[in-house]
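Full entry
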Amino acid sequence: MKRNKDIGGKRKGTSKGAATTGNTGGKHISLTVNGKLHKLMVGKDVNPDHTLAYTLRETLGYTGIKIACDHGSCGACTVLMEGEAVLSCTMLTLECDGKNITSIEGLENEETRELHPLQQAFIDHTAFQCGFCTPGIILSAKALLDKNPSPTEEEIRRELAGHYCRCGSHYLVIKAIQAMAGKGR
């Protein structure tokens, strides 16, 4: 999972020195989230100090992204960027200009409205309790399975090492991911 440690300054629009519409020159950035293009005006829709997690949840309404620790320690904010698991609370939105992002909402089949097989495997194996950390874990597991369709238990554990689940359902999570291993998902 990628962590961005270069995010100095305040976040979530709390900075008094943030760009405003008056000094941005109308600069836009674009994010493609779950296949949908979003154009955001800097200083209006997104401030330079907004994290990707904040923009996805608060501006664009993708509430499957969870913000818990807000500094990259728990994995709850995990999304896929260009197919790779990243911690969205450690990335500034402006750094993501032009990127393709997948949130947990983007895994559902748009035509049939069916859950992604990995999501269904989590349900089938009761691989969650409160569910708060589950979207981030599922997206990290998807990134792993896309790169390595048949990971070992050790590889699964290593990929999930950045996720913190207070409920203790990790052993069921591993079983759900193992059930998907080798199925090319």
Residues 4-23 have pLDDT under 50 and may be disordered. The longest helix spans residues 134-147. The two ends are 19 Å apart (CA to CA). Strands lie at 28-33, 36-41, 78-81, 84-87, 100-102.
